[in-house]
């Protein structure tokens, strides 16, 4: 079993005791093991990789490539050539939209869902310019992907199905293996946004059978500035390069160039070497905890959180009620702030907002005064906010260093906030 | 109570009981401002006679900072010359509000000021 | 004056004394001040920027934006909106080639030079696909940009002139203000690859009057994974976005999106926050040394290096002889390994390589045994190698922590290498 | 001298005085391999009779590792069955060379082996 209180001791920012950090879906804290790995790199072998014929450059190259292998294995990929280092999930998906996008033509369809993060939406919307059609699968009343609706959106013209594994707002865990089958039966590629799943559960790209998967280091105890695009090597091989420059070439002439092997073809310029090394240390840390334990811990915590949430009047929360298909993300509102309508507001005699409504900004500011960090806003999922009929939500997200104690603090502070803002 | 706490109380009072909320009869300058990030909205209305703001009202929806600051701004502007509004800077207005708002909420605090200034400009 | 021995004390990897690091043109070492700034961020306010309504997120946002202002001022830009954080120089130039490239049409011309790094060549070559013509200005016998040749390449159809400020092989310092004038007189945009100049000399984008400039943090005492695209805000404003996702949008709907203000429009997804903070600390460190002192130190060192080089038989070095127009980069060969020609080699009776030729790989390996790190190869400038008629060079590059002592060690080891490999 | 130092000496000997350098008369399998990164080149030539490598020679240009390993490989292959070459792995060959080469120079060390293998394949 995972003991969050012991885990938290590895995180200096948390062990001071004045911070209840409930925003790990945005970015996680870093354990000393990760920071030390980066520092050790700086002070023992910092240098540029791949081309140096001297000791520290060879050592740096080895650490960088070992990091690739390690991270690659962590998600069940046997061939490190399929693990491309990028800045973050966002860049990974843009890499795909630019390279896969070149092969699409007017009328081709891409299927997404209304619960996608902007990062798995805007890059694909760019392709509408060339006549590519984007279709969105809907969710049901509990915030689960509606399989019938999804099926109806996938058709003869579908080239790409790109879906999030876990929603960063609803917490919904999507059945990605089934979705992969659905996409592949329609001869479509299947892409998984793993930003909220790779950090939180055991996962295997081979058994999911996704064609590509994207995730970010900073959401899994690693540094910012490093992320991964996993791809089946035979598919990556056929893609044109994304960025041009050093390292990604085999040979450059004045009139053109040829490309390097995978994964280097997609890593132009000096990579974030320390970032990769830091992420590898984060992967070691998580593997040591055991990803099964990580998932079980979050499931139990969510079970508790949802029970506690039921005790608070006027609190609405979103996403599946079954913790088995709900990740460590808890989005909620206190009251439902109705949409603003100018005409009706100007003509009404009294304020339309009643006593029980509390704006997410006010909740978040109030919680901050008790040292509790939660996020408020659209969580980079505006279309989902529209779909839910809200302008924003508050979101508390949990990770390996969070305990029931943290949940208790949250709910006590919420009760107090309600009193403080009561009209 | 510290000055900061007093300011916070004043904000809460305005939020709970906004001044000058509703439709302004005879309004001849109005503007809606909207923060897409959180959905906060302020519709600001002015009645201008010559160079003077005779009256100001607002309606809106949003967090305490956005609504209370709109309420306070209506109080501040009533009976003042337009010049007063035009020369009111963002940091000046934030000083009047007296609460510390982080960068993420500054936009909320300034929503009404932006709306009021744009309303005057658009009425010209 | 700058005292390199005192400076080196801030660099733990160097103060151990077993490493003579002469590869700073590839990447520089990091002082404790930079590593500490990163660690302090991790342990005091690590969180995601821009949207958090709680203390540490506000603190992180403030440090991130202060970093932008600081770096912006360092290169003489008054408006931080013109400072876009990217991964490295390579990404900055790709951002330009993708966004500016969309506005180009067949027949439009881009002018580069034969001394460009692959990063300022391959991204532009991508545009040949749509009929854009790339023209290359030549160099003179001392490795200086040939102004007459450049003038002849710039014409009515020139849309972009993109040149390096300092060559990473020749060391040549190009007169960028004059080049900017030349480009602007032809109504062309002017882009500076500042990867080798921003770290090494006082510099001001306003007085250069470049439209865009790219540089990398890891070449100026900062971390890898962070770099800068400077652009005149009014020009950046008119560019379409590059990558889509979180932070770069104002509003997203299912059928499209609108963009955020500068510079965020170009920063999609979670940025490398700690990278920016580390780079800002590096800028503080450099400002403290004084960029005038940095440049003067390197000039004096190069003067010494070139003198010493003249004493070694069979040593050829490249680039301008005048240290005033020669950065801290010293590329050389021992003997000139002739190009390989299969027919003539098969038909000759004896080895075509004579005793004085030493391959750069062998030099570099040999120097490594004495703890001296230099680079060997094409330095990501294959077309320049072809132009120089060599397959590779060795390159020793100097920075603020290098002294005459390091140069002496290099030349003593080179003499020994010649003996060791003598046939 | 350590084993490593002895290996380094052997490499240097082969580099200074390459064995089997030049044109192989009656060559019936040959291939040029080239490392674009550094320009190192090896042209490897074999004379194969039935299943046996009767003779091997090379010409080339490059660093000591690339040229010495080619020289050593010619020695190793002469009179051996083709099978021997085919079953010679990259790591096996690096072991024979006995020197530690970093990742950047591995390609140089393996240039001749790659050329020899490709030569046989192409001659089929
Ligand atoms: C002149 C020049 N341009 C561009 C680059 C590419 O820099 P980076 O690898 O950081 O993108 C380099 C560094 O190798 C360089 O020296
Ligand atoms: C589901 C999902 N996808 C994509 C992203 C984008 O990640 P990043 O900002 O690291 O690119 C996030 C994180 O905000 C996310 O939660």
3D architecture notes:
The complex is a heterotetramer, with two copies of chain A (423 residues) and two copies of chain B (124 residues). By secondary structure, chain A is of the alpha/beta class. The model of chain A has no long low-confidence stretch (mean pLDDT 96). In chain A, strand 6 (189-193), helix 9 and strand 7 (212-216) form a beta-alpha-beta unit. Chain A is built from 16 helices and 15 strands. Chain A has helices at 4-8, 12-15, 32-44, 55-74, 89-101, 122-125, 147-153, 176-185, 205-208, 233-238, 273-289, 291-310, 342-347, 360-369, 382-388, 404-421; strands at 20-21, 83-86, 109-113, 133-137, 158-164, 189-193, 212-216, 227-231, 249-253, 256-259, 315-317, 329-334, 372-373, 375-377, 393-397. In chain A, strands 2-8-7-6-5-3-4 form a seven-stranded mixed beta sheet, with helices on both faces. A four-stranded antiparallel beta sheet of chain A has the order 11-12-15-14, with helices on one face. Chain A folds into two domains: 4-30 and 290-422, Aspartate Aminotransferase, domain 1 (Alpha-Beta Complex); 33-288, 3-Layer(aba) Sandwich (Aspartate Aminotransferase, domain 2), CATH 3.40.640.10. The two termini of chain A are 45 Å apart. The mean pLDDT of chain B is 92. Chain B has a single domain (3-123), classed as Sufe protein. Chain: A (Alpha-Beta Complex). The longest helix of chain B is centred in the last third of the chain and has 21 residues, at 103-123. A three-stranded antiparallel beta sheet of chain B has the order 1-2-3, with helices on one face. In chain B, a hairpin with a 2-residue loop joins strand 2 and strand 3 (52-61). Chain B contains five helices and three strands. In chain B, helix 2 (64-77) runs parallel beside helix 5 and helix 4 crosses helix 5 (103-123). By secondary structure, chain B is an alpha+beta fold. Chains in contact: A-B, A-C, A-D, B-C, C-D. One pyridoxal-5'-phosphate (PLP) sits between chains C (25, 88-90, 117, 119-120, 164, 168, 193, 195-196, 216, 380) and A (246, 269-270). One pyridoxal-5'-phosphate sits between chains A (25, 88-90, 117, 119-120, 164, 168, 193, 195-196, 216, 380) and C (246, 269-270).
């Amino acid at each position: 079993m995972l003991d969050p209180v012991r885990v938290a001791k590895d995180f200096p920012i948390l062990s001071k005791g004045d911070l209840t950090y409930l925003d790990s879906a945005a970015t996680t804290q870093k354990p000393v093991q990760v920071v030390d790995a980066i520092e050790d790199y700086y002070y023992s072998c910092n240098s540029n990789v791949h081309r140096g014929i001297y000791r520290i450059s060879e050592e740096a190259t080895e650490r960088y490539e070992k990091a690739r292998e390690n991270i690659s294995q962590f998600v069940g990929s046997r061939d490190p050539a399929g693990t491309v280092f990028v800045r973050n999930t966002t860049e990974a998906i843009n890499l795909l939209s630019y390279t896969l996008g070149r092969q699409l033509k007017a009328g081709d369809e891409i299927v997404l869902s209304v619960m996608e993060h902007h990062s798995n939406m805007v890059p694909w919307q760019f392709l509408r310019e060339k006549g590519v059609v984007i279709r969105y699968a809907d969710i049901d009343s509990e915030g689960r992907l509606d399989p019938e609706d999804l099926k109806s959106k996938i058709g003869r013209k579908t080239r790409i199905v790109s879906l999030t594994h876990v929603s960063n707002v609803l917490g919904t865990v999507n059945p990605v293996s089934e979705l992969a089958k659905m996409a592949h039966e329609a001869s479509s590629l299947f892409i998984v946004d793993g930003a909220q799943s790779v950090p939180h559960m055991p996962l295997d790209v081979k058994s999911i059978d996704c064609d590509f998967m994207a995730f970010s280091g900073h959401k899994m105890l690693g540094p910012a500035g490093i992320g991964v695009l996993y791809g089946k090597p035979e598919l990556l091989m056929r893609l044109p390069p994304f960025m041009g420059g050093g390292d990604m070439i085999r040979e450059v002439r004045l009139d053109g160039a040829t490309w390097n092997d995978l994964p280097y073809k997609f890593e132009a310029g000096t990579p974030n070497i320390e970032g990769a090394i830091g992420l590898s240390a984060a992967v070691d840390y998580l593997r040591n905890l055991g990803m099964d334990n990580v998932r079980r811990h979050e499931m139990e915590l969510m079970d508790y959180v949802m029970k506690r949430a039921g005790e608070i009047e006027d609190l609405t929360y979103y996403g599946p009620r079954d913790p088995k298909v709900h990740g460590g993300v808890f989005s909620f509102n206190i009251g439902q702030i109705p949409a603003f309508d100018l005409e009706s507001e100007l003509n009404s005699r009294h304020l339309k907002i009643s006593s029980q409504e509390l704006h997410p900004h006010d909740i978040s500011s109030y919680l901050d005064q008790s040292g509790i960090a939660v996020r408020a806003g659209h969580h980079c999922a505006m279309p989902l906010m529209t779909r839910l009929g809200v302008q924003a939500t508050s979101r508390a997200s949990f990770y390996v260093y969070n305990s029931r104690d943290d949940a208790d603090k949250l709910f006590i502070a919420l009760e107090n906030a309600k009193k403080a803002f009561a009209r | 109570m510290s000055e900061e706490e007093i300011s916070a109380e004043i904000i809460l009072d305005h939020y709970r009981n906004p001044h000058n909320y509703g439709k302004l009869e005879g309004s001849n300058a109005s503007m809606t401002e909207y923060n897409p990030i959180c959905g906060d909205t302020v519709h600001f209305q002015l009645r201008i006679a010559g160079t003077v703001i005779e009256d100001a009202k607002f309606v809106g929806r949003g967090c305490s900072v956005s609504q209370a600051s709109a309420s306070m701004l209506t109080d501040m502007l009533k009976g003042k010359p337009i010049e007063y509004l035009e020369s009111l800077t963002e940091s000046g207005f934030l000083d009047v509000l007296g609460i510390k708002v982080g960068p993420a909420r500054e936009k909320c605090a300034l929503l009404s000021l932006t709306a009021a200034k744009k309303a005057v400009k658009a009425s010209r």
